[in-house]
Amino acid sequence: MFPAAGGLLRWADSEQADQFFWLTDSADPDRWPIFAQPHDDVAAGWERFDGSTSEFIHRVLTDPQQPFSIACFFDTHTFESYEQIREPDREWDPDPHW
């Protein structure tokens, strides 16, 4: 297994350059705690989150009290289905990276 048991496995970065890791201290990846390192205060140390990755992401997106939350940047949340997004007009799109 990579990394060795007890090591940190980086799995994400935020737009604000925060870094997120799993502590691989169990044979069961569902039990790995999350460690987060803030981009603006590395000396402050690590924040530990004992919960699922989906719960962590949910809190980052919706809980303004979560240390790495982006919820404070938005007043409301919306969802737009991929199927509802209109494909760009190929005749005029100057950057056709679809």
What can be said about this structure in brief?
The chain has a domain at 8-73. Helix content is 10%, strand content 18%.
Write the layout of secondary structure elements.
Layout: E1 8-13, E2 19-23, E3 34-37, E4 47-49, H1 53-62
Antiparallel strand pairs: 1-2, 2-3, 3-4
Task: Please tell me about this protein's structure.
The protein has 98 residues and is α+β, with helices and mostly antiparallel strands. It has a domain at 8-73. 10% of the residues lie in helices and 18% in strands. A 4-stranded antiparallel beta sheet has the order 1-2-3-4, with no helix packed on it. The radius of gyration is 18 Å and the shape is globular.
Helix-residue proportion: 10-25%
Reading the helices and strands in chain order gives EEEEH
Main beta-sheet annotation: 4 strands, antiparallel
> Which percent range describes the beta-strand content?
15-25%
Global Rg: 18 Å
What are the key terms here?
98 residues; single chain; four-stranded antiparallel sheet; 4 strands; alpha+beta
